[in-house]
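Below: protein 1.
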Amino acid sequence: MANLQIKVSYHHGTAEEGRLDLYDAGVSIQGLARALAVSTHALINDGEIRKRANSATGAEIYISPSRRGSFQEIITIVLNADATSSLGYSVAGAALWDLVKWTWSKAVDIDYEPETAKVRRLESRKEPFIGEIEEALETPIERFHRPVKRNRDVVISVSRNRTQDRMLFNCDTLDAVSLRYDNEMSAGIIGNVTRYNILSGFGRMFVDDLEKTVSFMLTDNVTAHQKEHLTWSMDQANRDLAGKISFDATKVLSAKGAIKRYVIEEICRVEND
């Protein structure tokens, strides 16, 4: 069986004295556990996303005692024999760390490109894997930041144990996952679909006014006929045609006002573009 050890260290504030507020620490570790379960399960189950996961099928996740003199935890993710075999024993740990870095970085708006073949295959899927897992990770990663909410000077380091390869979570990454919902409807947004999952209703769309690609999800108000416009748009874009659609949606925003995703209510096709 393969495993991955992750070191989690809390810096500044009372963490420098080797202690954290009990409630803050509990919430943070719970968020960490759920975020690791979501990412681990997705890697070893062909991209399947469990949005309320407390465990990962095919793996066990353990925590070791804090080290004396600091607030630092060692997390060990142990993959079972089947998961190890499907990933390859020699690369399983690297692939899991790569997926954690990629998906968590996306959730907190940090640029990161996957480095392993297994994770690059998930990235290249037509289905919008990254947009859907990003949505699943936002709440647990926001909870992981709980000590930062109390003291915005706190920095949490997550690294692959015994290496210098790490991610840092601070007040800026907290703001990226502290979401608010703008319930004011924005009408007539123009764009074209780049990825779309018919089953989940999640997708990615290039939005003309923003000049960038943004995630979207559908409400129950979107009819089956309107959903056909999404697949049409994606097919047109894949053939280097315009494939523009117009949609009405509310927005999910970060604490700094950046658009994290659109929640679409109605869709129509833009003709003769």
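Below: protein 2.
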Amino acid sequence: MLKQSLQLKLGQSLTMTPQLQQAIRLLQMPTLELQAHLAEVLETNVMLEQEEPEAAEAVDFELGAHFTAAAPPTEEAGFTEPVEVEVVDQPWADRAGTGSDSGRAEDDEDRPRDLADERGESLREHLLGQLTLLGLSESDLEVAAALVDAIDDDGYLTETFAEVALDLAHHGPFGAALHDEEEIERVLLLVQKLDPVGIGARDLIECLQLQLAALAPATQGLGLARRIVDHHLKLLAHRDLGPLRRALEVEGLQGEEAAADDETLVAAVALVRACHPKPGSLISALRPEYIVPDAMVRRTARGWSVELNGRTLPRLRVNNEYAGLIGQGAGGGGHALLRSQLQEARWLLKSLEIRHDTLLKVARAIVERQSEFLAQGEEHMKPMILKDIAAAIGMHESTVSRVTSGKYLHTPRGVFELRYFFSSQVEGDNGAGTSSTAIRAKIRRLITDESAGEPLSDGTLAELLSAQGIPVARRTVAKYREAIGIASSAERKRDGSR
């Protein structure tokens, strides 16, 4: 027989209130996504308003310009001592203040314009638009359109004439009999005259030759440049022009190019290197995405200063005029809606304040641990994991993970995602660990300084690193080398590249 009874039990549990859910959601939002969210909230909540530029503190609008003017770090002897990381005082009183849209609009004229087509045309649309202006016959226009369809995003023809003819036979109104390979080749010569120069080539050599053919015949070194492209393109990978000069002398060139004097050779090499190996990439429907840093670090007399970017988000505040209406009148459904929106507005501002403070704490903790990287470069990056930062700021690792994902830090050495500063470590002979980022940087430096005729093998690189107190296996060196896009020693020796 079952018996009912009452029992007392102590325990802890976390209740995910709407406010907490909102704070977590805003914490992990990248800047662009948060901007879109705040714009949507501004349209739906009358209790929120955006501050006018003149009402905002001038210091926040000057952060970007003031920071970018900072001089790059120098390796001062005294800077090896522990440095102080300060946080610029940025009160978040009744607003989400980190910038304004109107403030960004004032700088539109000073921004560098991207080189992509402003109309958002694809390469195919760009080429087809030019074909309509050539006055081609209906048959030639059909062949030209088929050739354009066979050109990839880099600008190269990816199908053979036989494959193009087969496509026309299946889809064209005139049939395969009217489009033999000779006719397709003739039309291809017309397509190759379109913009950008070099389009429709079947390989790199033809692409470069098309671009050289567009130059004036009297251009210095043009003839030699064509010969280099036809026969000695691989020798351009050498930093030293000696192998290329010797190869040209062996051929016994006649006329102006016979001597292959330094001036002519240098001019010819410059012409080839000025050509674009992927002309199709110059026309893109995709506009470049600019990274807007969430926080900035600059050097001061006392060490490093960390501050949030004052231009990433609109500055919000509660609309006091509407808030004052709630206390007037007898109430009703309208006032209930206003009270609800006022509460939501206050929650949002509080959540944004938490986001800003947490981001600032994380950025400061990262800078404290990676000050040597900021002063001296990648080889001095320290190993660091999420747990280290979580312990330093007294928060959970999941919170640190949310903050560092999709957030960027502007430093004198460039703009980096916060996650970039985290890396695993390799235990050294002296018990100290070296970060994987530092090891990759050391490998890159060793390969850069190697002799072109005797490139360092992975085994040799492992021995050199071990001599520096970083014991790594050959396969680990190979993994790191491949991760930074450097070819093997055999390939570097063959191609003369690094």
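Residues 18 and 56 are 30 Å apart (CA to CA).
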